[in-house]
Structure of DUF3276 family protein:
Amino acid sequence: MVNFDHYYKIATKMEDLKKKSEIDMNDREIVFSKSIKAGKRIYYLDVKKNRRDEMFLAITESKKIVQGDGEDPQVSFEKHKIFLYREDFDKFM
């Protein structure tokens, strides 16, 4: 008989370790960060370094979505990301 609890615990621990390493990696690679509020949207501009120590711009749009009326509306956020690398900067200017 297969012990699914054992495999579930291992998978959960691996997922927790993955999330922790992603958080640590994101904290280390951000060089500059700015947020801009615009109505229902917030734009995040992050200058980051990749593993090869090259900088790039990450632009994130976060849009607030409210569904339903009354006392208990459902609130969620829709996110879109764009990564702009140094070799493409001149095409945006």
